[in-house]
TrEMBL record:
<feature type="domain" description="3-hydroxyacyl-CoA dehydrogenase C-terminal">
    <location>
        <begin position="497"/>
        <end position="593"/>
    </location>
</feature>
<comment type="similarity">
    <text>Belongs to the enoyl-CoA hydratase/isomerase family.</text>
</comment>
<dbReference type="Pfam" id="PF02737">
    <property type="entry name" value="3HCDH_N"/>
</dbReference>
<keyword id="KW-0456">Lyase</keyword>
<dbReference type="GO" id="GO:0006635">
    <property type="term" value="P:fatty acid beta-oxidation"/>
</dbReference>
<feature type="domain" description="3-hydroxyacyl-CoA dehydrogenase C-terminal">
    <location>
        <begin position="628"/>
        <end position="692"/>
    </location>
</feature>
<keyword id="KW-0511">Multifunctional enzyme</keyword>
<keyword id="KW-0443">Lipid metabolism</keyword>
<keyword id="KW-0520">NAD</keyword>
<comment type="similarity">
    <text>In the N-terminal section; belongs to the enoyl-CoA hydratase/isomerase family.</text>
</comment>
<dbReference type="InterPro" id="IPR008927">
    <property type="entry name" value="6-PGluconate_DH-like_C_sf"/>
</dbReference>
<dbReference type="GO" id="GO:0008692">
    <property type="term" value="F:3-hydroxybutyryl-CoA epimerase activity"/>
</dbReference>
<dbReference type="InterPro" id="IPR029045">
    <property type="entry name" value="ClpP/crotonase-like_dom_sf"/>
</dbReference>
<dbReference type="InterPro" id="IPR036291">
    <property type="entry name" value="NAD(P)-bd_dom_sf"/>
</dbReference>
<dbReference type="InterPro" id="IPR050136">
    <property type="entry name" value="FA_oxidation_alpha_subunit"/>
</dbReference>
<dbReference type="InterPro" id="IPR006176">
    <property type="entry name" value="3-OHacyl-CoA_DH_NAD-bd"/>
</dbReference>
<dbReference type="InterPro" id="IPR018376">
    <property type="entry name" value="Enoyl-CoA_hyd/isom_CS"/>
</dbReference>
């Protein structure tokens, strides 16, 4: 044994060759501080040997190395810039010392080799991957750039264009594609991986492969002419500007770093990478995106634990109500392998539900993501029916009829009399109290809410709503079913609107009041999209939701929280609804919808919408960007805080993920709680107090005020 640590070991094989095996104590290999230190110690031990002809690097686990240990980043990134730069420079030098070993090295990559794992492979002279491998540099998804030499070695290995496409998108490559682009030298079957790596490193040691030239290439400046460089980097910069926009600094800085380092050797280029990594580590975007990653891990962990505790497996799903939503839910169940019965009271609705599923699959075929056989299998797994009797064998019944408590209550009562004794019953309601609906059932313990978001096949979130009588077994089973459908479940407690809609409608209320105070709705949309970063501004989002749905839901919220959410007199949403301007569903709302000469969709602020609003609103007034953002976001933030304080949602992290996955909260802001913490809880209280005269929606809770006074964090 040449070296043995807790995360890796180096041993001598036959014929003077050695192997470095990553085998961390946890379930996966990752680069935490301990592993980096051990790699440095192992490298030092290897460099002192004169009996090693070559080295293979591989993993004893099902994945090579999944990346750096993100959990260490939160504390590390709170350090000063100088301290962060010192850390990343020292760490990257560990990879340099490994790269400089006096014999050829090869990485044998299986499973994921991401981030630091990819950079470990790049530090080797050669790379062989098995067919399970996925290789990439996804740091951009955390608001960062590679920090262990990725921006230096990859461009010199596969060219600047390809490398920047890898790094600025964060997409990993399967083994064959990585080989086609030059990042991998060979691809073999999993059982042949170590054997192939050993054969290749022996060839290198025998000088049949010029590994020294390969290594020299990675340490030298890029071989680009001035014109080639200008073209390459200007193209990359334009692509990043179009794809990422201004809110995500990481991809922009990656392009700039590779460009500026193109004429430098490894030492100079790595210094620029270290500086770039340090700069990004201190940005709000990185803090937010790392927060999202950690919150996502928490949500997934809780979901897996609950699913594991489930004692009931879903083998047949039933969906009641076969419109666009019902069809979307049926598709989602079928496409993930669980047969589904889709029941409605009329044939036209069933046809609509099947058409919705077929439309989703057809688009998948057009994009090359679905083949005809998959389409046929999925559609054959959906059984349309007009009869309740077909529900008898269903394990999970999802009611998705019209959003009316009387209609839903009647349907749920009839369902309970039809299904088996242990079948679970759910309601896909967006606002109606689960306890109120449960009053229609004899066995409320097997009932809960299962709130899907439209369009079902695209939106990751499903809110699982626990009523006061809902059993743990029911919640666990529904969480398991949600995961099986490929969705992210977040469990919340019952209240009008649950979590997402309860906090969304104060945002809409802030918008309505702002418009009635003289703001231009199109200008408000522009600020919330371009400046704050929402995918849609509030007027556009209301058009997408549908004015009939929004008007009804606002009534439910007003009834549930009359002190804060009572309906505004002459609410612009109600004005649109009463004028039969329902939004995208009938082509007119705040905006007019149509198509241009090429058949592309168009959207234009509607004169009729302005006419309706101007008749009720104050004179047109100018509001600056900060004012617009504050008037819409403070009500949402306050209501989200109330949901946490009341125990509607279990943690700030889960609330942030629900808004990210449910309504597209800007990822670079990390969620409502991350947005509050970025400005500081004390600063948020000061901001809200400036607008408290606008009413209860703008008044912070005493708990928030106390947190600000105590200097506490929602993520402690």
């Amino acid at each position: 044994m040449i070296y043995e640590g807790k995360s890796l070991a180096v041993s001598l094989l036959d014929d003077g060759f050695a192997e470095l095996v990553f085998n961390a104590q946890g379930s996966v290999n990752k680069f935490d501080r301990q592993t980096v230190n051990e790699l440095d110690e192992a490298t030092a031990a290897l460099s002192q040997r004169d009996d090693v002809k070559g080295l293979i690097v591989h993993s004893a686990k099902s994945a090579f190395i999944v990346g750096a240990d993100i959990t260490e980043f939160t504390a590390m990134f709170s350090l000063s810039k100088a301290e962060i730069n010192t850390w990343v420079a020292k760490t990257s030098q560990v990879f340099d010392r490994f790269e400089d070993l006096p014999f050829p090295t090869i990485a044998a990559v299986n499973g994921f080799a991401l981030g630091g794992g990819c950079e470990m492979a790049l530090a080797c002279d050669m790379r062989v991957a098995d067919t399970t491998a996925a290789i990439g540099l996804p740091e951009v998804k955390l608001g960062l750039m590679p920090g262990f030499g990725g921006t230096v070695r990859l461009p010199r290995l596969i060219g600047a264009d390809n490398a920047l496409e890898w790094m600025t998108t964060g997409k990993d490559r399967k083994a064959d594609k990585a080989m086609a682009e030059g990042a991998v030298d060979a691809v073999v079957a999993p059982e042949k991986l170590v054997e192939a790596a050993l054969s290749m490193v022996k060839d290198a040691a025998a000088e049949t492969f010029n590994w020294q030239a390969r290594r020299a290439q990675k340490k030298a400046p890029l071989t680009l002419s001035k014109n080639e460089g200008m073209m390459s980097f200007s193209t990359a910069a334009a692509m990043v500007a179009a794809m990422a926009g201004k809110h995500y600094p990481a991809p922009h800085l990656m392009v700039e770093t590779v460009k500026n380092a193109a004429s430098m050797d490894r030492e100079g280029a790595l210094k620029l990478e270290n500086e770039g990594f340090t700069t990004l580590a201190k940005t709000d975007a990185a803090q937010a995106q790392i927060g999202i990653f950690l919150a996502d891990q928490l949500v997934k962990s809780k979901g897996k634990k609950m699913a594991k505790a489930s004692t009931k497996e879903q083998q047949l799903t039933a969906v009641l109500g076969a419109g666009i939503m019902g069809g979307g839910i049926a598709y989602q169940s079928a496409v993930k392998g669980t047969p589904v019965v889709m029941k409605d009271i009329n044939r036209e609705a069933l046809d609509l539900g099947l058409k919705e599923a077929a439309k989703i699959l057809s688009k998948g075929i057009q994009k090359g993501k679905v083949d005809p056989a998959q389409m046929a299998t999925t559609l054959n797994a959906i059984t349309p029916t007009l009869e309740y009797s077909t529900l008898k064998e269903a394990d999970l019944v999802i009611e998705a009829v019209v959003e009316n408590p009387k209609v839903k209550g009647s349907v749920l009562k009839e369902v309970e009399q039809t299904v088996s004794e242990d079948a679970i019953i759910c309601s896909n309601t967006s606002t109606i109290s689960i306890d109120k609906l449960a009053a229609n059932l004899d066995k409320p313990g097997r009932f809960c809410g299962m709130h899907f978001f439209n369009p079902v096949h695209r939106m990751p979130l499903v809110e699982i709503i626990r009523g006061k009588d809902t059993t743990d077994d029911t919640v666990n089973a529904v969480v398991a079913a949600t995961l099986k459908m490929g969705k992210t479940p977040i469990v919340v407690n019952d209240c009008p609107g649950f979590l997402v809609n309860r906090v969304l409608f104060p945002y809409f209320a802030g918008f309505s009041k702002l418009v009635l105070d003289g703001a231009d709705f199109a200008q408000v949309d522009k600020v919330m999209e371009k400046v704050f970063g929402w995918p849609m501004g509030p007027a556009y989002l209301l058009d997408v939701v549908g004015m009939d749905t929004a008007n009804h839901a606002s009534g439910v919220m007003a009834e549930g929280f009359p002190e804060r959410m009572s309906k505004l007199t002459n609410d612009p949403v109600t004005l649109m609804y009463n004028d039969k301007r329902y939004g995208q569903k009938n082509g007119k709302g705040f905006y007019e919808y149509g198509t241009d000469k090429r058949g592309r969709p168009t959207k234009q602020a509607a004169d009729r919408a302005y006419e309706l609003i101007n008749a009720q609103a104050a004179d047109t007034a100018e509001f600056d960007n900060d004012d617009v953002i504050a008037r819409l976001m403070i009500p949402m933030a306050n209501e989200t805080i109330r949901c946490l304080e009341e125990g509607i949602v279990g943690s700030a992290a889960e609330a942030d993920m629900a808004l990210l996955y449910g309504i597209g909260f800007p990822p670079f802001r990390g969620g409502v709680f991350r947005w509050i913490e970025t400005m500081g809880v004390d600063k948020f209280v000061e901001l809200a107090d400036k607008y408290a005269h606008l009413g209860p929606l703008y008044e912070v809770t005493e708990g928030t005020r106390q947190m600000a006074a105590d200097g506490k964090s929602y993520f402690a």
